[in-house]
Every structure is written in structure tokens, then in C-alpha cells.
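Support request, please re-run this one:
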Amino acid sequence: MLFYFMSFPLLYLSQMRQLLILAACCFSITTSAQTIIQRDPEIEQMVNAVSPDSLKTYIAEMVSFGTRSTLSTQTDPVRGIGAARNYVLSKFNQFAASSGGRLTAYIDTVTLPPDNRRVNKSTLLGNVVGVLKGTDDNDHRVFIISGHLDSRASDVMNATIDAPGANDDGSGVAALIECARIMSRSRFSATILFVAFSGEEQGLLGANFMANKALKEKRHIEAVLNNDIMGSNHSNETNIIDNTRLRVFSEAFSVMDTGRAAINIRSLGLENDGKARQLARYVKETGERYVDNIEVVMIYRNDRFLRGGDHTPFVQRGFAAVRITEMNENYNHQHQDVRVEKGTRYGDLAEFMDFEYLRKNTAVNLATLANLAKAPPMPDKVVIDTKGLTNRTSISWSAPGTGKVKGYYVLIRATTSPVWEKKIFTASTSISLPYSKDNYFFAVQCVNDLGNESLSVIPGTR
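Re-run finished. Output below.
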């Protein structure tokens, strides 16, 4: 607060002194009321290590394989999906050498028969997986960052023509490679998977394969951050140029939420509080905390019209999964043969990307993953007391079975708010708040000494 003074008559000196005193008081109050963003120093250091030059190098290598069509050659050492898979695997193995044995990598394969749709021959499908093992053997949580390695031209069945796939989805794969490079040097309680899917353009085949396996093996996947088309700032048609906003798409609730679960969602008004949407809120809060000059924009849809992504098979099987993608897409540089037509250059080439934008978007992923994997597990048995007609709200919960918990955040938001508006800390496992349970939504998350928060849990009723 600034005050400007011109020359005042002597008569007004006393009033001016009073005004100065008032200004000083106001400044003091304003200063003391400022909210200081608390960042975990280790996560902040990792975020600062994200390099646009590294991202550019990864994409240049992937583009150099000519095409990465899932149906392309798997035996040529310098062209096709086989060479691309081996490149990503080699990067993971390179980072594993300095991980103290925590990072391992492999290609998870399955043979797909022809389906008379987008697979016209028997095809070996391979997802490249880097596993950064958690340090706590009792912590079974798994967090996934993914992108799809395969690319396509205008004709999705053309496996020989050049399909550089720089942004779709070289950008997503570059982001997960960079996260693996940086995060492999650190230790996390939970396990992190870095996954480059194949078969996305042929119908989300690699993601379906992995999601099915995870469900069958009862893997404790708590979050999937799927990155697809995240490195361009310039839209066609509207010609909007903006590298300060990033979209996160999230489903309202899973198709598995049927029967009693669906009745509970309806009766409590929890249409916007499914697992994916809670994860989207977490991405927004954490990403904006650690990455400057970025706004994470939540989109209340699973994906864009006429398009799909590798998060969807996980959502359909009850896992929390979101799609992270650029704010303004350029369809001249997606699913297009490389060509010049009527003066317009088409094709998914690296020259149309913004690597500073990709750096920020990668950093949002890294901050979110690191904060999740360092945090304790979610609280257990979270319930809200609805037995009495009161204008207070009483919530109780249990500590998680593993992890070091300093305390808990009770989150509050208006029923019409897309984001949590208040965070109240308590070291107890119960709380009574002067907020009506009829007027607000509530959730609880665990927090450790460094301020790393778990995902939030919406209370059930009793």
C-alpha cells in the first residue's frame, strides 16, 4: 500500500502524521497476513533441474526413427517402433546406473492378433517400463507417469511413411524420460513407474494391456498422470499463443461406481469428487505451488471430443487417472502427413514446439509425482457424523497403516467450488468445525514433517 503526498499547508501536518501512522499499520497487517508458499526443498531442487535442452534432445532422437507406428518394423536398428523402444529402454538403463539399484527397466510385451480394425497383422506390442522402487517395503503404493511412444501419419494404418510424432506424443515420452533422469537420484517411500506405452494410436492397446494386468494382480495404483500432446503453445484457427496454461482432464467418477457406490454419490452430491477429479485437484495445487508462471486448468471431462488417451483404460478399471495436455492444440501438426499445402506446412515436427513450455509442463508432473511418492498414504476410515441436526461438522478418521504422519489437513470448499478453499491442520484423528456439513464439502489428507500431502479422502457417513 503506497501513499503519495504533495506539499501540504502546515495546518494539515497533524492529519498527515495520522495518515502515515494508519498507512504503517495497514502495511504491517497486510504483511503479517501474507501466505507464504511452503515448498519441500528437495522437490524444488528437482523441479529446477528439469532441462529444456534435455527434452529437446530426447524428442530429436525419437523423431530420428522416422516413424514409430506400432505396426512399423521392429528389427531395423535405426527406424521404426522397435528402435524407438530400445532407445527409451537405454535411457532408463543409463539412469539406473546412478540410482543405487533402485531403478530397473524392461519392455513388457504381448502378441496381438489382427483385429480387423487397426491391427492388420500379428504384432508384438511392447510397453517400456522404468520402475523406481520405493524405500518402504510395507508401502505398496504405485504412482505412474506415462506417455505413448507410437506415432501416426494421416492414415493410421500406414506404417512406412514418415510420422515424426514430435509433440504427439514425443512430448509426453520426453517428459517421463526427464522425470526418470532426475527422480532416479532420489529416494521415495512409494514406487514410481515411468511408462512409454505402445499402441495408443491403434486403440489404447498398450494401456489396456497394462491396466488389465494391474487389475488382475491387484496392484495398488493410486495415481496415473498420462501426458499426451503437451509441448506446443500455438493453436490453429484461433491463433492463440499461450505457454502459461496447462489442461488436466478428469472423469467425474468411474464406470465401476455402480450399485451402492452410485447411490452414495447421488445422495451426498459427490458427482465432482471421484478419484480422478481428486487427483486433478492435487495436480493443480501441487503443480502451481512448485512451478512459476503456469496455471493448471481443470477440465471436467475425461478427454477431448473425438479423441482418447491412455488414462482411460485405468479410469475404466477404477484407478485414479488423468490426462495432462497443452491448452491450445494445433491440428495442423497432429495426425498429419508431413507436407506443404496451399502455403501451410503440416506435420508433427519439433520446430512447432515450445520447449520452455514443455519444461514447465514436465515440472508440474515431477512436482506432483514427488510430492505423492514422498507423502504418507491416505488416512483410513474417514467418516462424517450426520446423525444430528447441527451447524457444526464432526469428522473422524484413522492413521494409515504405514508411513510417518505429522498430522492431517482437513480440506473445505463450497459445494460450487472446483478447488479446495481452506486447509486446516490438526495432529488429532478427529475434528469439530464451525462449518455446516450441508453447505460445504470436506476431505482429509495425511501430511508429513516436510509438508508432503497424500491424496485427499472424501468422508463417508455414519
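Residues 380-461 form a domain with the Immunoglobulin-like fold (CATH 2.60.40.10). Residues 1-33 have pLDDT under 50 and may be disordered.
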